[in-house]
Amino acid sequence: MSMEEKLRALSERIKNHSSAMLTEEAVKTSVVLPFLNALGYDVFDPAEVIPEFTADAVGKKGEKVDYAIKIDGQIRILIECKPLTTNLDKVHLAQLYRYFSVTDAKFAILTNGRTFNFHTDLEAPNKLDDRPFLTFDLSELNTALFPELTKFVKDGFDVEGVLQSAHRLKYTSGIKKKISELMDEPNEDFIRMAIADVYEGRFTAAIKEQFGPMVKNAFREMLRDMVQSRITSALATTNVVEMEPVEAPKASDEEEIVTTEEEKEGYMIVRAIAREVIPASRIMMRDQRSYCAILVDNNNRRPLARLWFNRSVKYISIFEGKEEKKFRIDTLDHIYDYSENIRSTARSYAATQAKEQTPEVAEQ
C-alpha cells in the first residue's frame, strides 16, 4: 500500500473506532505507530523508532518523550502523545520543548491521535516554536496534505527542504486563519479600510453596525465571483483550443468508442488545472475502451491522468513518475482535489522538455 492508502485507512479507523482510543497507550498503538509506518519507518526497530526516549541534562529526572525518530544516526523527530480527548495546548509542549534543546531533533510532533501539530525552530535556533507550522485532523484528510507529509517519509527525508516548507506553511496558515476570521467577523479597522473609498462620512458605532454585514457579504461574494470567473475562463480557453478532435481508435470488433459528455468535461477540468503549468495546446485526450487517457503532447509516455468513467463507480488515475495511482471520485468536482498532483506531473513533463531543448540552444 502507498503512503496515501495507509493514511486513508488510518483515517477511517479513527472515524469508526475513536471510542476505543481514549487512553494514551491506545493512541500510540492504534494511531501513532501506524502513522509512522505509513511514512516508511520501521516501528519494530528500536534503533530507528525509539520508545520512551530519555536524554541527558534535560533538567527533570525520569521525564521521557514517547518516541524519538532516528535518521542516519541522528535524532531528528520527537513525538509526544496524549489521549484522544485531550485539547492540545502550549502546556503539552513542555517535554518536547526541553528535549528539543538538548538533542539534534529538528522537528517535534504533538498529537492526541486525531490532531497532529508539527513544530520546529523557525523563530529562534534550537528553541521550539510555540505555534505549529503544520496542523491537521487525521480523521478528515485533505488531499493537499499528502505532498507535505511526503517530505517526512524516511527515504526522502530532507531537513532543509522540510524547513523551507515549514517557513511557508507556518506564515501562510497564520495569514489564512486571520483572513478567515475577518471574513466571519470583520473588525473595526477592516471595516474602516473597506469602506474608506465608498463612504465619506464620519465613522461611528452606528456606521460600523450598518456596514459590518455588508463588508462580510461583499467578502464572500468576491471569493465566489473569483472562483466562478476562473472556472469560466479555464473552460472557455479549453473550448477555443479544442481544434481537431483526436480520432477514437477502433476496437478489434470494429465497434466505435464513444466519448461521453462526462469524459469530455473531466478532460476539460484536468486541462484547465494543468494549463497553469504547461500550454493547454499540449494537453490531448485519447479515449480507450477501458479508460479515457489525457496525455501531454499526445504521447503515451507522458500520461497526465486517466478517467475510468465506463463503470458505475468512477476513478481518476494520477501519475507520479511511472507509478499510476487510482482514486475514487463521486463527482467531477472531486477532480479538483488532485489539482496539485496533476500540476506536479505536468511540471515534470515541462522540465523534461526543457532538458531536451537545452542541447539545441547550446549548439546555436
Q: For the record, what CATH class of the largest domain applies? A: Alpha Beta
CATH architecture of the largest domain: Alpha-Beta Complex
Structural class: alpha+beta
Determine the fraction of residues in helical runs and give it as a percent range.
Answer: 40-55%
Oligomer: single chain
Instruction: List low-confidence stretches.
Output: 238-254, 360-364
Give me the CATH fold name of the largest domain. tt1808, chain A
Choose one word for the global shape. globular
What would the average pLDDT be, to the nearest integer?
A: 82
| Main β-sheet, spatial strand arrangement | 1-2-3-4-5-6
Task: Characterize the structure shown.
The longest helix is centred in the middle third of the chain and has 36 residues. α7 crosses α8. The strands form two sheets. Strands 1-2-3-4-5-6 form a six-stranded mixed beta sheet. A five-stranded antiparallel beta sheet has the order 7-8-9-10-11. The chain folds into three domains: 172 residues, tt1808, chain A, CATH 3.90.1570; 56 residues; 103 residues, Outer Surface Protein A, domain 3 (Alpha-Beta Complex), CATH 3.90.930. With 364 residues, it is α+β, with helices and mostly antiparallel strands. The C terminus is likely disordered. It is globular and about 75 Å long.
